[in-house]
Specification:
This protein is mainly β. The protein has one domain: predicted glycosyltransferase like domains (Thrombin, subunit H, Beta Barrel), CATH 2.40.10. 13% of the residues lie in helices and 39% in strands. It has one helix and seven strands. β5 (38-43) and β6 form a beta hairpin. The longest helix is centred in the C-terminal third of the chain and has 12 residues, at 83-94. The N and C termini lie far apart (31 Å).
């Protein structure tokens, strides 16, 4: 998160969750972060009034693979998601 004038925080990075589990997520983005980077992750999911928030570590990343190659993005491991958040993700991913 990056500070805005007035002390509020705003997302400093945006991507799309392409695949998800209770332990991690693939974020599709044109600007993936490097392996080992820890980020604050906010996931806006249907069924949750507030975003799921936790720290996540980049386990791997890849650049765009060309017009027929894989999407650019990064695989994140959730570091400190609460048991309630993991339970929600388990249920959400089983739908």
């Amino acid at each position: 998160m990056a500070p805005e004038p007035g002390g509020r925080e705003r997302p400093a990075f945006c991507g799309y969750a392409a695949e998800m589990s209770e332990t991690g997520v693939f974020i599709q983005t044109a600007n993936p972060r490097g392996k080992g980077t820890v980020i604050k992750l906010l996931l806006h999911l249907p069924g949750l009034a507030d975003p799921l928030c936790c720290n996540a570590e980049v386990c791997w990343s890849r650049k765009l693979g060309g017009s027929r190659g894989p999407s650019a993005g990064m695989g994140l491991r959730l570091l400190d998601a609460s048991e309630e958040a993991r339970s929600f993700l388990r249920e959400f991913c089983s739908r």
